[in-house]
Amino acid sequence: MTKRKILVTSALPYANGSIHLGHMVEHIQTDIWVRFQKLRGHECHYCCADDTHGTPIMLAAEKQGLTPEALIEKVHAEHLADFTGFHIGYDNYYSTHSPENKQFSEAIYLALKANGKIESRIINQLFDPEKQMFLPDRFVKGECPKCHAQDQYGDNCEVCGTTYAPTELIKPYSAVSGATPVLKESEHFFFKLGECADFLKEWTAGSTTLADGRVQPHLQPEALNKMKEWLHPDENGEGGLSDWDISRDAPYFGFEIPGAPGKYFYVWLDAPVGYMASFQNLCSRIGIDFNEYFKADSETEMYHFIGKDILYFHALFWPAMLKFSGHRAPTGVFAHGFLTVDGQKMSKSRGTFITARSYLDGGLNPEWMRYYIAAKLNSKIEDIDLNLQDFIARVNSDLVGKYVNIAARAAGFIHKRFDGCLKQVSDSPLLQQLAAHSENIAADYETREYAKALRDIMALADAVNEYVDANKPWELAKQEGADDQLHQVCSELINAFTMLTAYLAPVLPQVAANAARFLNIPAITWAHTQSTLGEHRINKYEHLMQRVEQKQVDDLIEANKQSIQAAETAPAASTYAPVTEQASFDDFMKIDIRVAKVLNCSAVEGSSKLLKFDLDFGFEQRVIFSGIAASYPNPAELNGKMVIAVANFAPRKMAKFGVSEGMILSAATQDGKLRLLDVHEGAQPGDKVG
Known about the structure:
Number of helices: 20
Number of strands: 29
CATH architecture of the largest domain: 3-Layer(aba) Sandwich
CATH superfamily of the largest domain: HUPs
Mean pLDDT: 91
């Protein structure tokens, strides 16, 4: 067998949230593939990192009273602990906020610039007039210009998959303040992706012939079809590649662009470069030749496991960046679908938005979930469903009832009757049957057909259990003169268990390690799928896996419900917002603040933040929208109350909800609530505040 050199990555989790089971689908899928390659004896390196740059990180850090650096360091430790808890075996888990990533990002940018692929342009960019900041794509929402889905982000539509500029959104609004953004000029830098179209058409439809002679397509068929939609204009001339805006304006947490003060690399430029940075960090630590893996004529393999929502970046932007900066393109990009729970999108209110930490803290075995997810995964870009009742039934039936039970039913007899020593059973038809499936199961792992591999493995486990029932070792143990037959049967069963463990080792690494100690061997390897242990002494058996109990799953769902409720009611950190820069008396006098009476207050359909106020200012009636819905869940209680409002702000269109004719004043309290200001008894609508 030809020994391969392989670099594997998972998409980088963003350093602004907890790891949940949706993340775990991808990292478990990747980890299984990597462990399989290592079991086969290949040189395989698994690198990942936290994605740490961008406006959301900056704003989240500010909200928590931390520097961005302190926030990403804290999150890094939490993410790595969660992944480690699920036995994700990275060779390196790093950060995109690293000296290596800065170096590579700048080098790739300068190489693209020298290659004529970077262009500076003055553009009109959406600007939040309330927050006084340019709005990143994900901070603008509006109506998709293609399918007209509502509340889509400013970079791509989650309904139809179209990518676009935020200025193309219909009825855009700021996701930060709700204000209607205005266009403002700014110099930006563009990667001329359109000039890379010929290369990308060839690469996306192409393949690589591997050292072992197999042909590896660069993309899955479904991904290739999607790329064709993006690469080729339709009969109306729509579609095709657009140049890619790779810069953002200050304030921004990231790497400043060389020679462009106040301009920063867009996070999606330096995030995939983070794969290189993490690998370089590993290379420096353990002495690998980095260039062998990334030089333009590299004969090594490089694979990216990603979610289908970021396919555009990995199948178009990233290969083009690599190619035109003098590096190799990926050998393959493997996309997967999303995770649903009980047939529905993960939900915080239902408790099915399950975090990795809540699962681990609840005492649930992470290998239960590894097995269940693997049993649902194949090589296609399909969503998979975590059906919680099926989860309980399948784990208990397959892993406990079929698999570990084999060792439990035979080990005691070997230990008590034969001093722990196995008999030579290499001529066993049962074991030959198991060994015959080795290459087929290996092929399924190689092509990420995990569900098929596990079905075949469990069919073999069924065959072994049928052998147990046919030979009944518990009855042989009672018969005089049947010791040799008992020894034969139980030795076959322990060897069969060893073979099944080798087949399952990529999915169940901890069980495999514990089984190796029981079997008294250094480690389980793929070679154990085709060989027997011979005359070998094993150790005393200790139980390898418990059953899933219904209460554990019920408690998990309840814990996630409670964590959301706790987050909604938890007090904020005991720090006050800093005092803003000084304003003059003349500045203050420009603002006309009035008392107004609430005629009617109601929730706004389609918004979780806004309340609609019908107000009486004495001299006229107006409508004002205010983003305080979370603090006043029963808006009708405000009817008849007096509030304080700014009366001379220009009317502002609130996305699809209507026009707001002023602003109601409220105080942001330390518990995270917004409270309307009280008005002293006797004040009348229209009274001026000053």
